[in-house]
Amino acid sequence: MPARQLIRQLLAGLRPELEAAGDWDQVTGLTESALARGGSAARQHAAYARGGLEQVVDTLLEETRTGTDGQPGARPVGAAAERY
Would you kindly state where each structural domain of the chain is located, as residue ranges? Predict the structure, then answer.
């Protein structure tokens, strides 16, 4: 079973509990955003296609510096947020 399908199936199984806690909309939104964005490997492949290894390194440095993990418009988290 593809990972995307498995994740959505797991989420569907948790729906009653997430709705009861008032978290369903947030969790499904974050999950769909993460699935659409892809993992770090997908972002690195795309960066390589745009500009080779130098672009991959630049992309990783930017994601690390901002703490945004490739999320457009995301606010920094963790230690990165403390710098702002």
Answer: 1-37, 40-84
C-alpha distance from residue 78 to each of 12, 26, 64, 66 (Å): 29, 19, 11, 10
Residue pointed to by tokens 């569907």:
12
Residue 40 tokens read as: 């770090």
Buried (b) or exposed (e) across 50-68, using 16+ Cβ within 10 A? Answer: eeeeeebeebeeebeebbb
Tell me which DSSP letter residue 16 carries.
H
Q: Give residue-wise pLDDT tens across range 30-81.
A: 999 888 888 889 889 999 999 999 999 999 999 888 877 766 656 655 554 5
In order, the DSSP letters of 17-53 are HHHHTT-HHHHHHHHHHHHHH--HHHHHHHHHHHHHH
Tell me the C-alpha distance between 59 and 61, whole Å.
Answer: 5
Contacts of 15 (CB under 8 A, 6+ apart): 24
